[in-house]
Amino acid sequence: MSNVTQVMFLRRAANLAGNYVLAPLLGRSSTSTYWYLPDPTNLRSEEDLARYHNFSPSPFYVIDYRTRTTYEFTSPDGILRLPYPNPIGPQINPEAAFQCALGWHDRYVLDGSDGARERFFLYADYFAERQTPTGDFNYLFDWFESTAPWHSALAQSRGASMMLRAFLLSGDDRYVRAALLALDRFDVDCSAGGYQAIF
């Protein structure tokens, strides 16, 4: 192993230790402290399921992401950022942001929390304006083998859930168009740039 490779390995190990070990112990914000926030289910009984099916105007999300709204690391425009180790630095991760948005949605529909509706629509509008013509909610930073811009099936589906709820709350067709566009390539094979893989 060359000296340069050893230094890169040690830096990576230090970043991982800081992110996954030190940050949680010291109570600092990190990517790991976001991903490991508790996420209980909103569906615990048959009554909860019936309430979900009959909820109006917009159903609460099946996972309770309300704790995500307590994470205080945001961009200047109010969208959640995750503090990735250098050289990446703070970035908007669409999947993380959609979880936070769904948490704001549920703070509004379940708790009637002041300002939660506006925070939810801040996210819906931000991503509706940045969705690509092919429906992608892009990641704008490199991550291992993924070179920016890249996208993920998980973020696409969670983004569609957020946009559907924005439509149900507002009646604005641009949100339902964004939801449908986000799901457009789920029946297209991965080799053709879609999300479908058959094993």
Features:
single chain; about 200 residues; mainly alpha; 2 domains; two-stranded antiparallel ribbon; about 50% helix
Supply the number of structural domains. 2
Radius of gyration: 19 Å
* Net shape: globular
Quickly count the helices.
Answer: 7
| Biggest pleated-sheet summary | 2 strands, antiparallel
Biggest sheet: strand arrangement: 1-2
Question: Which residues form runs of ≥5 with pLDDT under 50?
Answer: none
Number of E-type strands: 2
Topology as a string of helices (H) and strands (E): HHHEEHHHH
Please state the average pLDDT score: 87
Question: How helix-rich are the residues, as a percent range?
Answer: 40-55%
Structural class: mainly alpha
Question: What share of the residues does DSSP label as strand, in percent?
Answer: under 5%
Distance between the termini: 37 Å
Draw up the topology in text.
Blueprint: H1 3-26, H2 31-35, H3 46-54, E1 82-83, E2 90-91, H4 94-109, H5 116-130, H6 153-170, H7 173-182
Antiparallel strand pairs: 1-2
